[in-house]
Amino acid sequence: MTDYAELLKADHDQAAHAIQLVDSEGFPAWLRKQPERVRTAITGQKFSGKPNEVAILPGDKAAEWSAVGGVADTEKLSTWCLAKLAETLPEGTYRLHDAPGGAAMLGWLTAQYRFETYRKDDAAPGPRILLTRDIARIAPTVGQAEAVALVRDLVNTPAADMGPADLESAAVEIAEAFGAVLTVVRGEELQTQFPMIHAVGRAADRAFSPRLIEFRWGDPSHPKVAIVGKGVSFDSGGLDIKPSSGMRLMKKDMGGAAHALALAMLVMESRLPVRLHLLIPAVENAISGNAFRPGDILRSRKGLSVEIGNTDAEGRLILGDALAKAVEDGPEMILDFATLTGAARVALGPDLPALFANDDALAADLERAGGQVDDPLWRLPLWSPYADMLKSDIADINNAGEGGFAGSITAALFLQKFVPASIAWAHFDTFAWRPAAKPGRPKGGEALGLRAAFAMLQQRYGRTA
Fold first, then answer.
1. 3-class DSSP assignment, residue 32
2. Which family does it belong to (predicted)?
3. Of 114, 242, 299, 379, which residue is the catalytic one?
């Protein structure tokens, strides 16, 4: 794993190459002020100040070269405006000229993420170190980069190496690091206490047996916050089997669990004054002789009976049991993360997590926080008339609506059945994957909605980075 603490350091006037930032509007005036050798170099590199352009500028001596990067607006630096520089500049140490860095320091770090568990990239560049005088921001920025990397690492890891037991190991490591109290429910106890989690995961090989992973952290007198993450380590679709093309990326179906673990880590690392309850239902939705079937009726932890209209709508089943458990502790807020529906991706594409909430103030806080930290969300409605799509003739509810309409909304409405209106609840239907690289955001597993949620929690509970 990348050591982000080595990539962002306090500026004590060490030797470093300077980085200047310009935008298209200010580029002509900036260029006129440069010596002839710089203007010549700029012309040769076809630099015009557009976002993500990078050029090397000659100095008085060969070793005194500097760099310039194009950004959208020099007065308002985005999280990702330094990322292209961090990706393309040579190994070395750098400092921003007349700019503090701020949130852009995170993009500098995330741009240097590498997933090298299964191969070594001998061509990978060496570290690019950024110096900053904003010393108070170093630790929080490094912490967020590590949280993003955790999501990426967990999601990028193939299902054979990231089953329920591996999710448990990741949770154990994080819990032990911060003194959280961890419990895991498996086997007959799981079947009795969390029947839907057990039913979804019972067809998997014993090495991938289902479980509920949870830990608690913080002062019991502080406000209770529950974080729930869907941990389907691989989703075949069950007996309603997916086509091969639909299974190709299903190693990422535990992306909600990855987000939940990363958010819990940020909460504990920043010592937010909350009583944290993390819950991860971890299963593999496999196929065997004892797989749950279309038409089966499952009894949930809450007591609701659920008719199975589609075994490929399994994520909402395991989340239902986990949400029911979270509710029993009486939290004032529940956040759940899940790679839940393809319908959300059809509606919003890969970049925007669909946000559902039963509390307008919570939704507004999350949307505002997401905008502030360049981690956007898009709220969709919990449109109650669509609950009719989940009606069952023989059970309290069906897990899959008929007709194919409003798939992400009906999934959220199913989850809402397990959360009383008295508890503020937000559901993130996130993709957890980036199909094409952008500066600071490589192709593969991705944290989408994580930083928005953390920023909201910081603002609500009185501590900001």
1. helix
2. Belongs to the peptidase M17 family.
3. 242
Is position 465 within any domain? no
Tokens of 458: 């910081």
Domain extent, residue 247, equals 143-460
The DSSP H or E segment spanning 48 is none
Helix (H) or strand (E) holding 356: strand 354-357
- For residue range 93-108, what is the model confidence (pLDDT) as tens digits? 999 987 667 899 999 9
* CA separation for the pair 166, 282 (Å, rounded): 10
Indicate if 417 belongs to the active site: no
CATH number of domain containing 362: 3.40.630.10
- Is 80 exceeded by the pLDDT of residue 121? no
Axis crossing angle, helix 450-460 with helix 360-372, rounded to the nearest 10: 110
So what's the pLDDT on residue 204? 97
Known catalytic membership, residue 325: no
In the chain, how many domains are there?
2
Whether 358 and 425 have beta carbons less than 8 Å apart is answered as: yes
- pTM, 2 dp: 0.97
Query: Smallest Cα–Cα separation from 278: which of 222, 362, 218, 367?
Result: 218
Catalytic choice (302, 316, 345, 434): 316
Q: For 322-330, what is the mean pLDDT?
A: 98
